[in-house]
Specification:
CATH architecture of the largest domain: Alpha-Beta Barrel
Radius of gyration: 23 Å
Distance between the termini: 17 Å
Helix content: 10-25%
Strand content: 15-25%
Number of strands: 20
Strand order of the largest sheet: 1-2-3-4-5-6-7-11
CATH topology of the largest domain: TIM Barrel
Order of helices and strands: EHEHEHEHEHEHEHEEEHEHHEEEEEEEEE
CATH class of the largest domain: Alpha Beta
Length: 429
């Protein structure tokens, strides 16, 4: 069976993340206004900036999907109507929503905008998929609780586009409809204000012994019984494509550009390989890349049916991260790059460039200069420096280093295997 090349859909929490996602190969991005998006703490886009972001993406052939997937109250409706009018002018490729009332508002007031139904709508069966298709929705973002077999059944009984998450954080609550944050912190996850309460470490207190806290042991670090490992389906993309998923969604509007760049680059290469006609095989470079930045360990979620709890639960080694962002290449002139620093760098530090063909290679930071050409033995976050870069480095590429390597004197380029990427079973390809 011929499978259509899936879309790589990337998070764009602010303009810098938008540029990064597009630079590293996203086919489409999802972004939103903090008032109506479930990522209220992301940088997000407002008014004219949202229009500019959509225009920037379209000029580069990238589709834009605007998130409006809060569950609105009556007091939200006037602002929603104003935002719908703005989107009518901005012309995104689609809007992502979950509320039926908001769906009907778009149908009345902006009928030319395609509508995608958010994972918040809990689409877990064929009849629900048919319902939204019958209303005229263009795409369904499927619930994360579905197995591959259930997705195949939906694909076989509908013609609507299907989107599914392939990478990123998993929420402990059903399709992300969480109330823990509301109860514990009076901040509603369903209105974009989630405090990530499920990531906290918990102890037990007995009613008649207030103030005495007892650990609930998973191991000697404590318990994170509500915190899941992160989703990673890099090893199983052919199965998702064959099941009928046409858009591979990457979670992470709250994540930094180091995460956005590495994950988008990896899934871009994987989807290109999937569509190359050559049997799909997971590259060692992909596994290395996905292991470098913040993650809780990886799981395949529920795509293969229910797995043992130990394959989902975060083990308490909070946010493993072996590499950190050093800076972003702004422009290159005759082999010398203008670099916007995001971290301290010293002459002689071992660094890596997130550039095609340079994966895992270390280079030496040398001949650093300031804007006037004066030598710099070191520079810090916020500085802009000039430095020679190897052939193959591009404008907008990221520069990183191993967290323990600052001050190391690496005079030669070398290969680095990086830390081992941990998956939960099954590892069927």
């Amino acid at each position: 069976m011929e499978v259509k090349k899936p879309e790589v859909l990337a998070p764009a929490g602010d303009f810098e993340k938008l540029r990064t996602a597009i630079h590293y190969g996203a086919d489409a991005v999802f972004l939103g206004d903090s008032r109506f998006s479930l990522r209220g703490k992301a940088g997000n886009f407002h008014g004219e900036e949202l229009k500019a972001a959509i225009r920037y993406a379209h000029e580069r052939g990238v589709r834009t999907y605007v998130t409006m997937n809060i569950f609105p109250h009556n007091r939200d409706l006037p602002a929603l109507r104003d935002h719908i009018r703005l989107l009518g002018e901005a012309e995104p490729d689609a809007v992502i929503l979950a509320d039926p009332g908001l769906f009907m508002m778009f149908r009345r007031e902006a009928p030319g905008i395609d509508l995608h139904i958010s994972t918040q709508a809990n689409i877990t069966n064929v009849e629900s998929a048919r319902f939204w298709e019958g209303l005229g929705a263009r795409r369904l973002v499927l619930a994360r609780e579905l197995s591959l077999e259930e997705i195949r059944e939906i694909r076989g009984n509908t013609s609507i586009e299907l989107e599914a998450f392939v990478h990123g954080s998993l929420c402990i609550s059903y399709s992300g409809r969480c109330y823990i944050s509301s109860f514990l912190a009076s901040r509603s996850a369903n209105r974009g204000e989630c405090t990530n309460s499920c990531r906290w470490n918990y102890t037990l207190m007995e009613e008649k012994r207030p103030g005495e806290h007892f650990p609930v042991f998973e191991d000697d670090r404590g318990t994170y019984i509500m915190s899941s490992r992160d989703l990673c389906m890099i090893g199983h993309l052919p199965l998702l494509a064959e099941a009928g998923v046409g858009s591979f969604k990457i979670e992470g509007r709250m994540k930094g550009i180091n995460y956005v760049a590495g994950v988008v680059k990896t899934y871009r290469e994987a989807v290109d390989a999937l569509s190359s006609g050559i049997p799909y095989a997971v590259s060692r470079n992909w596994l290395r890349e996905l292991s470098l930045f913040s993650n809780r360990g990886y799981t395949t979620g529920m795509y293969f049916g229910k797995q043992p709890d130990s394959d989902y639960t975060f083990d308490g080694e909070s946010y493993r991260m072996s590499h950190e962002l050093v800076g972003v290449v702004q422009e290159i002139d005759n082999g010398t790059a203008r670099i916007d620093l995001r971290n301290r760098i010293d002459e002689g530090d071992a660094i890596e460039y997130l550039s095609p063909g340079m994966e895992g290679k270390h280079f030496k930071a040398e001949c650093m200069r300031d804007g006037e050409g004066a030598p710099l033995p070191s520079a810090r976050n916020g500085d802009v420096i000039l430095m020679p870069v190897p052939v193959g480095v591009r404008s907008n590429d990221l520069i990183r280093r191993e967290k323990a390597s600052r001050g190391a004197r690496q005079g030669e380029v070398r290969d680095s295997g990086g830390p081992r990427l941990r998956f939960s079973p099954p590892q069927r390809l």
